[in-house]
Amino acid sequence: MNTSRIVLSIVVLTIAALVCGACATRSKVADNWGTAYYAQKQGQIVNPDASKNLQPVQGLHGQAAEAALGQYVKSFTGKAGQTTGSQRMGTLGIGIYGQQQ
Questions:
Q1: Could you tell me which of 71, 91, 18 has the C-alpha nearest to residue 100?
Q2: What separation in angstroms does the CA of 54 have from each of 14, 38, 43, 49, 51?
Q3: Cβ neighbours of residue 93 closer than 8 Å, sequence gap 6 or more
Q4: Residue 21: how many CB atoms within 10 A of its CB?
Q5: Bridge partners of residue 100, in order along the sequence
Q6: Predicted confidence (pLDDT) per residue in 77-87, tens digit
Q7: How far apart are CA 46 and CA 41, in angstroms?
Q8: How far apart are CA 7 and CA 10, in angstroms?
Q9: Reported pTM
């Protein structure tokens, strides 16, 4: 092969790759890009003196949050061989070779 055919092949493949890349769909990240920034900006426009309020924000009480976290962590300790819902998710209860579990 001569050099001009190699260069032509590279150019054609590059153009084909660019054309195929242009057909790709947008990702979820691109759809939501900047949402947090604009929400924060609108919050500052609505209440520009919010930084002067030194009261704690309302939310989950500390002891309630600690108890919920403790239950969450405890849910991962189980008997050996015990199947939890998260381990079977997506399998529809069908094991190897289509046998019911």
A1: 91
A2: 58, 24, 17, 11, 7
A3: 100, 101
A4: 8
A5: 94
A6: 876 655 555 55
A7: 9
A8: 5
A9: 0.31
CA geometry: angle at 35 spanning 30 and 38, to 5°?
135
- The token duo for 7 is 């260069």
Exposure b/e, 51-79, CB count within 10 A at least 16 = b:
eeeeeeeeeeeeeeeeeeeeeeeeeeeee
Cα–Cα distance measured from residue 17 to residue 11, given in angstroms and rounded to the nearest whole number: 10
Helix (H) or strand (E) holding 90: none
Q: Which two tokens stand for residue 74?
A: 């405890």
Query: How confident is residue 88, by pLDDT bands cut at 50, 70 and 90?
Result: low
Please check whether residue 68 is in contact with residue 62, taking contact to mean a CB–CB distance below 8 angstroms. Answer: no
- The model's pLDDT over 22-50, given as tens digits with 9 standing for 90+, comes to 777 777 777 888 898 999 899 889 988 98
